[in-house]
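note to self — DONT lose this again. spent like an hour looking for the file last time. sequence + predicted structure for the chain T wanted, 203 res
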Amino acid sequence: VVSAREEASKIGVEIMKKKNGQIRIGRVFDGPAKVAGVEDGDIVTRVNGTKLHEKTSTDDAKDLIRGEDGTSVTIEFVRGKPEQKRVLQIVRRVVKTPNVELEVLEENGLRYGIMYIPRYSTGLTKEMKEKILVETTNGKRLDRFIMVKTGNPGGLLSEGASLPDLFIDIPAVSGVITKTRDESTVYSTSPIEALYLVKTPGD
């Protein structure tokens, strides 16, 4: 996934690898793939006739999907159980993806902020703070805050290191859980009665 300040001629999806070696679609951004009906969780089996296998890396899959703007790529997917096979021809376009996405859910009187972080890009902390402040104005607060970093390949150390301090600066956030590939880390600015983890498909 590229940051909002980068551009890539592709189809507008996040490519991830499951523990069993399958290449799957993560989030689907606004772009050709979304228009074509690609969904989060679809398993990619072939790209332009090339079969993907357990040794295919996410970088290999991205290289197969990427191409010149305006050219097409044929991708075979399987979805659901029982598996349904789909073959789509998608025209590549320049797709911009965000540094970070914030989804707010409300349940049982609590507000949950779920932040998706595809990589530690320039401006990530600033953009995250702006999104949180929008959701915590006029007396609103986020009772639980979850950072989902599954599939995050890394990036700028300075951006990653500054994230914990961000939540100390925003008292309207009561607790934070980050979900990484292998472990979870809890940041808290006040006592938390219950902690919640988000598991994404393939984890």
